[in-house]
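User: Let's play a game. I give you a shape written as C-alpha cells, and you guess the letters that built it. Ready? Here's round one.
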C-alpha cells in the first residue's frame, strides 16, 4: 500500500527568463519514502528540488506556473516561507557547517527560533546527532570546531542540523558527491533509518545509489519528467526507451 501523499505538483512550469527549465511536471511524492531524481546534467533536478521549499525565490527572474501542493496547500500562494523551509529542510552537495562548535551548529536553528533552555537544547543536540548517526563520533568534542570534522562527518552534521529543526521533509541535492565510498555508505544507511521519520527526496548522479536507497525514482530529461515509478521497475523494466537508454549508460 502506498504511503500518504506529501507533495503533489500539478502542471508545474518554471522559467528562468525566457528559458523553460521545468515543463508541466505532475508528481506525487509520498511520506516515509525515499524519492530519487536522476537524469543528465542540466535537466532540471535541482530546480525542481528547490521549488519544494521555495528556494527559487532567491533567484531573480524566475517565473513559476502550476501548483505545488504540500499537505493540501499550494506553497506558491500566500504562505509563511520561513515556516515552509523549517518543515522542508535542505542538505546541499558540499557540506557547509557554520564556523562554530559542533554543539552550536545544531543548537543554532532552535536558538534562532527563541529556545533558550539549556537542558532542552542539550537534548535536541544529542537527539539530532544520534539520528544522524554521528553522536558516538563527536560526543567527546562537542565544543570543538565543526570545521575540524572530516567531510563525511560534516555532511552528517549538516543532516543533524536539519533534523534539529524538526522537519517533515528533507531535500538532499547530491549529498554524497563530495564523499568517499565509506562515508557515502554511512549516509545511505542513514537515509534508510531517517525515512521512517521523514520524507526524503534526493538528487543523485549515481544510478547505483538511486537503486540502493530509493523507493521511487523520477527520470528527468530536458525539463520533463519522462518516467516516475517504483525504483525496481525503473531500473529493470522501464516503460520509456529514453529511461532505458539513460540507465544503461547509452547517453547522459
Ligand atoms: N539561476 C539560474 N538562472 C538561469 N538558468 C538557470 C539557473 N539555474 C539553473 N538554470 C538552468 O536551468 C536548467 C536546469 O538546471 P538545474 O541546475 O536544475 O539542472 P540539474 O539537473 O540539477 O543539473 P546537474 O545535474 O548538473 O546539477 C539548466 O539549463 C540550467 O542552466
Ligand atoms: Mg543539480
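Assistant: Ready! My guess for every position:
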Amino acid at each position: 500500500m502506498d504511503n500518504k501523499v506529501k507533495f503533489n505538483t500539478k502542471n508545474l512550469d518554471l522559467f528562468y527568463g525566457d528559458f523553460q527549465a521545468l515543463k508541466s511536471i505532475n508528481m506525487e511524492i509520498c511520506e516515509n519514502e525515499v524519492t530519487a531524481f536522476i537524469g543528465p546534467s542540466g535537466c532540471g533536478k535541482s530546480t525542481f528540488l528547490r521549488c519544494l521549499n521555495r528556494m527559487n525565490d532567491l533567484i531573480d527572474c524566475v517565473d513559476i506556473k502550476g501548483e505545488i501542493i504540500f499537505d493540501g496547500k499550494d506553497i506558491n500562494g500566500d504562505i509563511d516561507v520561513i515556516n515552509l523551509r523549517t518543515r522542508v529542510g535542505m542538505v546541499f552537495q558540499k557540506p557547509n557547517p557554520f564556523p562554530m562548535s559542533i554543539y552550536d551548529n545544531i543548537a543554532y536553528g532552535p536558538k534562532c527560533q527563541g529556545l533558550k533552555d539549556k537542558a532542552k537544547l542539550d537534548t535536541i543536540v544529542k537527539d539530532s546527532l544520534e539520528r544522524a548517526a554521528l553522536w558516538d563520533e563527536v560526543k567527546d568534542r562537542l565544543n570543538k570546531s565543526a570545521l575540524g570534522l572530516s567531510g563525511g562527518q560534516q555532511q552528517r552534521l549538516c543532516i543533524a542540523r536539519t533534523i534539529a529543526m524538526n522537519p517533515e521533509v528533507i531535500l538532499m541535492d547530491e549529498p554524497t558527491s563530495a564523499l568517499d565510498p565509506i562515508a557515502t555508505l554511512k549516509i545511505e544507511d542513514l537515509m534508510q533509518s531517517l525515512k521512517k521519520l521523514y520524507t526524503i527526496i534526493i538528487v543523485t548522479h549515481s544510478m547505483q545509489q538511486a537503486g540502493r536507497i530509493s523507493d521511487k525514482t523520477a527520470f528527468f530529461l530536458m525539463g520533463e519528467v519522462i518516467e516516475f515509478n517504483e525504483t525496481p521497475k525503473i531500473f529493470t523494466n522501464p516503460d520509456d526507451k529514453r529511461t532505458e537508454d539513460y540507465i544503461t549508460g547509452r547517453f547522459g
